[in-house]
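Hypothesis: this fold can be encoded by more than one sequence.
Test: take the structure tokens below, design a sequence, compare later.
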């Protein structure tokens, strides 16, 4: 009888462990769970943002099961080396070049297209988090999220005050809540 109860308890624990793993698959970890990634921020259950990635950051992404990296840096030599390093893993790499002039309609459309086809978990990043935070803010505004919440999320991801001003000028003209 005692052995039967132990088996039942072990079966329940095993089932909970498997269920927990299945639920966590596709989710990004919280910042306290991640090392070696500059300005890492969990902005949604399946999307995180960050600054620049080096080889240890890429390994950290692999360790946490990330499947897609969206780089919003302007194309340059470093984007090529990062793309090659990520292609050596099982992750997909996308580059949507964004400058310090902000996000335009075509860049937002490209971001939405990548999100629609991307496998989670997803990392959106740039050099410092500024453009990644701006892209996240514009995306959230386009999804009808209240402006104060969208801007708060973007600033938490690393968007600067200067970029906040640019985004407000470009994307808040037809909104009453900006």
């Amino acid at each position: 009888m005692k052995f039967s109860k132990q088996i039942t308890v072990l079966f329940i624990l095993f089932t909970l462990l498997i269920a927990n793993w299945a639920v966590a698959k596709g989710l990004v970890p919280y910042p306290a769970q991640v090392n070696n990634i500059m300005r890492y921020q969990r902005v949604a259950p399946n999307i995180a943002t960050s600054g620049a990635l080096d080889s240890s950051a890429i390994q950290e992404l692999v360790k946490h099961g990330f499947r897609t990296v969206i780089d919003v840096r302007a194309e340059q030599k470093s984007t090529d080396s990062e793309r090659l390093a990520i292609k050596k893993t099982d992750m997909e790499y996308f580059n949507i070049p964004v400058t310090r002039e902000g996000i335009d309609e075509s860049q937002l459309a490209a971001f939405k297209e990548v999100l629609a086809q991307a496998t989670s978990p997803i990392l959106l990043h740039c050099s410092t988090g500024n453009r990644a935070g701006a892209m996240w803010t514009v995306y959230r505004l386009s999804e009808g999220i209240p402006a104060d919440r969208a801007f708060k999320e973007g600033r938490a991801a690393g968007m600067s005050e200067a970029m906040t001003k640019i985004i407000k000028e470009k994307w808040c003209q037809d909104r009453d809540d900006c």
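The chain has seven helices and five strands. The longest helix spans residues 2-24.
Hypothesis status: open.
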